[in-house]
């Protein structure tokens, strides 16, 4: 494993000092919850791998539960099926010819099969999903970790958000979509989940691939992902607010 060079730590500390020194370093987690600080951290100049690593090791994980805590019933919400004929044909074939596109502000755009994704470094986590509609459920999720995937794809310096394009429309004219910043993209519990409760994702829960971004509310957890685009801004996408529900008035930052 490559070690973090001291020079990077020094330049990180220098920047930290410029922002208020000890208070900045000591209160890292609280500060990371403030939108303006998150915005600052998302700026390209901050996003060398080593800086990300230093920040993220300080971040709390969402609470993880045990097998005994698993909900006997996990509600499926929002879209529970997809009308798109191309998706339905893929589902018929067990998603063997489905592909995930990763493009936008990346060094090496990719087209990945489910087998490709299953071969990547994975993480399994038992977490509680909280929907703004007033229900929660505990489920077990396994998926490809975003951090090593993004490191192999390579983000361009201008990249600040990942936009997840989904296959469903939820009664609207255009597809469901969501966006997360790079703080959440590189969070250790952020995974592209292909298994739920030890079995391949079912269609109601977002087959074949959905986002788990455990420090955010339910609507950020995009199901039926077909494309991930790295962008510098989401202002020009759809309604401009960064997501299907955000365009309809929900907060973009849905941290819990
Ligand atoms: N593509 C897509 N993703 C989606 C939704 C949706 O309708 N379409 N609904 C969101 C909402 S509001 C919630 S609470 C969760 C529900 O996930 P579940 O069906 O696995 O419970 O998915 C989120 N992701
Ligand atoms: Mo939700």
What's the gist of this structure?
The chain is α+β, with helices and mostly antiparallel strands and 256 residues long.
Descriptive overview:
- The protein has 9 helices and 10 strands.
- The protein has a single domain, classed as Alpha-Beta Complex (Sulfite Oxidase, Chain A, domain 2), CATH 3.90.420.10.
- It has 256 residues and is an alpha+beta fold.
- The two termini are 33 Å apart.
- The strands form 2 sheets. The chain has a 5-stranded mixed sheet. Strands 3, 4, 7, 8 and 9 form a 5-stranded antiparallel sheet that branches.
- Helices cover 25% and strands 23% of the residues.
- The N terminus is likely disordered.
- The structure holds the ligand Nc1nc2c(c(=O)[nH]1)N[C@H]1C(S)=C(S)[C@@H](COP(=O)(O)O)O[C@H]1N2 and molybdenum atom.
- Molybdenum atom binds next to loops.
